[in-house]
Write a structure and sequence with these properties.
Blueprint lengths: L14 E11 L4 E3 L3 H14 L4 E2 L6 E5 L9 E5 L3 E5 L2 H14 E3 L5 E10 L5 E7 L7 H12 L5 E5 L1 E2 L2 E2 L8 H6 L14 H13 L3 E8 L4 H6 L11 H10 L25 H16 L5 E5 L8 H17 L3 E5 L13 E4 L9 H10 L4 E3 L2 H4 L21 H5 L14 E8 L7 H8 L2 H10 L9 H9 L2 H6 L16
Parallel strand pairs: 2-3, 2-4, 4-6, 9-10, 9-18, 10-13, 13-14, 14-15, 15-16, 16-17, 17-18
Antiparallel strand pairs: 1-8, 5-6, 5-8, 7-8, 11-12
Helix pairs in contact: 1-2, 3-5, 8-9
Bound molecules: ligand TNX.
Length: 503
Amino acid sequence: MVFTHSLPLVPVPVSVTAGEGRMPVTTATRVSGDTAATTQMIDAIQRRTGIRTERVDGDADITLRIDPAVAAAEGYTLSIGDSATIIGADEAGLFYGVQTLLQLLREDEDGTWGLLRAEIADAPRFSRRGVMLDVARHFFGVDDVKRYIDSTSALKFNHLHLHLSDDQGWRVQIDSWPLLTDRASVSSVTPGEGGFYTKDDYREIVEHAASRHMIVIPEIDLPGHTHAIGVAYPDLVEEPVVSDDNRAQAESLGQPLPVRGEIYHGWAVGHSSVRIHEERTYDFVRDVVRELAEMTPGPYIHVGGDESLGTPQADFDLFAARATQIVVDAGKIPVAWHEMGSAADIAEGTVGQYWGNTTPRGTHAEEAAHFVERGGALIMSASNVAYLDMKYTPDYPLGLDWAAIIDVQTAYQWEPTAVLDVPDSAILGIETPLWSETTRTYADVEKLVFPRAAAQAEVAWSPKDTADRVWESFRVRLGALAPLWKAEGVTFHASDEVPWSTR
Ligand code: TNX
């Protein structure tokens, strides 16, 4: 196969020069470098080709090493001629250099394998390149989450946000409030199918993520999206505030309405709230944040804040200020959905997560900007381009459509710094969320995530004005990921916008 649109790399690197031909990879290929990335590379080459390359000390065909002088944080250089060298600026850079090398590993017509020759220098545009997985609406076990980490870190994502609680379920063990998992984890949007992470499960996820240079951000959604808390502890929550929209939606989908203290299976949002004027609520938040902080090495705890539609504004603002301060007091940086920016005194340094449209509506832009005024920064998750749970086409069987229909091209063509009126330096980067109302299985998740996560990876990593950062180039490079995904067992939606390659 001839790659007419430069080399088959996603996200496209800062600088790429294609060489002539390829460097063969055979069982005689020797690899040196005593790092975790070396073992990961040898294993990945074997999964893809069946060839087990040999790790040696000293002279080798593929050499991996670290040199902080070579690039900015997370950057690397990769040179493939008669031999190959990856130099990472740090461990993460080395890992990303390996991911690039694996994309250059191609099978020839005659079934032999080789690395396309190239000179590459690379480093990320944004330090925040996030994915989210909603494990509350449907639960996904540790092995699924590990697969999610593997397949998204291969695209150079470096943060995993776990949405650990919502109206339909509570998914993480909290020793001081044991009924959360005893009573509120047993179900999901699908009645009778639930689950939760024990503390050991959670630590296993965090460790696996770290081995792929991903930071885990745990989210407990508050003060709304809390119906499940009331299944465990009814005195912590208010009576559901069921809107006309909730009623109409429940009727059209044939779903139940929420009843306080009873497990809820519908998709409606905005009806639940914890009790904002009860001190016991803050005892609860403090305990949960403390226990999460103890098992989360990453600097962030997400306290939610979206769609508290039945909560009076003044109560919501009071809660936002107190909850974010509790996170600060626990030694972590709070993250919140952009609505919490309505609180004048949201804790200083809180990071806002913007989920509005690329053309902001209502008060969304103002709320987002307030995080910056309070010394915080923003993560961009514009829902009409970056929401992985939206349908690809109106008749796609999985996904929702309230924010937009998002085909691959739409997912690709947006600019995170062009949405809000804040300095570019206030934009940490992006996060692309997968909400799980319609994804009952992990294969369903993958069909929505791939290939669109690759589009978001390029938005987050690649320089915005490089020649290849255009759809016509991207779609061809994206198509070349198909054999890699197949080798790794990643289920993806073979959208007809993309020329998928077979080798
Ligand atoms: C909105 S946008 C939500 C989630 C839903 C999602 C479905 C936001 C922060 N919250 O509760 O799962 O839409 O697309």
